[in-house]
Every structure is written in structure tokens, then in C-alpha cells.
Amino acid sequence: MTEALVSIALCTYNGERFLREQVDSLLQQSWQHLEIVVCDDGSTDGTIAILKAYAEKDTRIKLYCNPQNLRLTRNFEKAIGLCTGHYLMLCDQDDIWEKDKVAKLMAAIGEDLLVYADSALVDEQGKYMGTRISSLRRMYTGNDTRGFVLSNCVWGHTVLFRRVLVQHILPIPAGIPHDNWIAFAATSVQRIRYIEEVLTHYRQHSHTVTSTLPVKGGSAVANRNRKEYMDRMAWLLATRDFPQNNNPGFYHRLYALYARKANGRFVWPLFFFLLKHRKALFAFTRKSLLSQVNELRKQARGVA
Fold first, then answer.
1. Residue 213 falls within a domain, yes or no?
2. What secondary structure does DSSP assign to 67-136, as a single string?
3. C-beta atoms surrounding 119 within 10 Å
4. pTM of the model
5. I need a labelling partner for 15 at 20 to 30 A (CA). Which of 40, 163, 249, 260 fits?
6. Domain containing 254: what range?
7. Are 129 and 61 in contact (CB under 8 A)?
8. What is the pLDDT of residues 176-213, one digit of tens each?
9. Residue that terminates a domain, selected from 203, 230, 264
10. Does one domain contain both 96 and 155?
11. Can you spell out the DSSP letters for 193-209?
């Protein structure tokens, strides 16, 4: 039986330091029927030279160089649009994949729309840091999207999804992280599945785009309040208006209540609405009950 074609969307930008190790882990996958679509976003180091050398040796690598910098989300959007496989995966430039990652995700997806796995956090030398994503988040299987309002448990580099999902996720709404959006869309349209196995070594270093470990420092957190509110409103607007939203009443009400925060007052109806949906909202987190209530208070506080 012929293996289905799996497309891997790899986005690069000045990634020469760790790129070879990542590309080697892709080419050494036990699932060989691959298409590796690489979109470079204007690298000025040796990234393109490295990729061209690999592409000359392996025709599965298809290299595209952006004429102008698109930044991460738009670059992934472009890469996804160029993929032709029956199944798609997303890839960062600095991680390391287990050699059976593609095969194990393909075996696990079943009738679901998206499947994802665990990752082990490693340092710059690739040494395990004693933490997995699953120790920071509660991983989820199902079709309830409410957990994405306050958190996320699906990192982009962990997923494999069916091509049919592409029509629902593109274009990615402005200001919305691509992995959050893809996971939300898949959960709305059908459901997502988690498999409890580490399939990626997720490298943490000074240039890591996604912050995984908690940010320390009270002033840094305080300075983010206004931006967090604007980001939340953008997210709620996008999710509210998503055509396949499987809980539209919840999102329309939530957006309207969050909009009241602009007057600078504590929004009690928002607090009680969030409290009513507390278990679903914190389904992806490991917060204690007290921490959850404190978070709901923060969410209901005015921002003007």
C-alpha cells in the first residue's frame, strides 16, 4: 500500500545555528513519502545556502525565498498554501523530530481532523530540561473550543492535520497566532486528538519565538495588560465570526462582555459569565482553584 503524501511546512529566518539538525531529523523520518515545503523569510545568514545544499541532494525539499519579510504567521500561511500533501505538518527551524514522529501521528489520527503529541523541552545543546509541554498544560482530546479563550495546549510543531482543514484556516486572522487558530478551527469543525508520547525535542533559547516557560517579573506582566486585552478582543472577534463555530452563542456573549472592559470598570457580568464556564475555560491549564478565580478577576477588570 502506497504511503499518503505528508507535507511539512518549514518556516526559516536566520536559523543557521540549529537548522541542519532539524532538517536531518526530517529527512530521516521512517515515513518517507514526504514533501518538505520551506519558506525562508529573508534570512541574511547562511540559512539559504544550507537549504540549497540540502535541496540539491533531496528532491523532497522545495525551497521558496520570500522577496520581503512576511513575519512568522504570514510565512506559515504561505507555506501551508504551497503544500500539496494529503496531510500537513508544521515545523520550526530549531527543533529535533523523533524519527517515527510522522508515522506515529499518521497511525493515530484515525477519523479525527487533527492529532498532536507531547514535546520535551531541551536547551541549546539539545539536553533535556526536565520539562514537557504536558507538565505545563493539560492536554486535550475533544471538540470543546472554550479552553482556547484563556490558554492553548496545541503547539504548531506538534500537529498533523488533514488537508480539508486548510479551507477553514486560511487566511489566518491578523494578530492571531497560527497554531492557536489551527487548533481552534479543527476543534470547531470536528475534533482534535492528543497522543501521550514525546515526538519532538522543543529547543529553548534566546531566539525562541514562542514563550513556553513562565515569564518572571511583575513589571513585565503589568506592562502587557493593555496589549493582552487588545489581543483577546482580536481573538474573540475572529472566533465569534468563524463560520464553523460550534458554540456561537457563547462567543457572541463573551465578546460583548469583554467590550465593556474598555470603560475602565470591573465588569461583574463578565466575571460571573466566566465563572459559569470556569471548568471549560481552564481545561488546558494546571491552575489551582484559587489561581483560576484570581485569573477571572483579572479578566473582568477594566483596562481604560
1. no
2. SS---HHHHHHHHHHH--SSEEEEE-SS-EE-TTHHHHHHHH-TT-SEEEEEEEEE-TTS-EEEEEHHHH
3. 23
4. 0.92
5. 163
6. 218-300
7. no
8. 999 999 999 999 999 999 999 999 999 998 766 554 55
9. 203
10. yes
11. EEEEEEEEEEE--TT-S
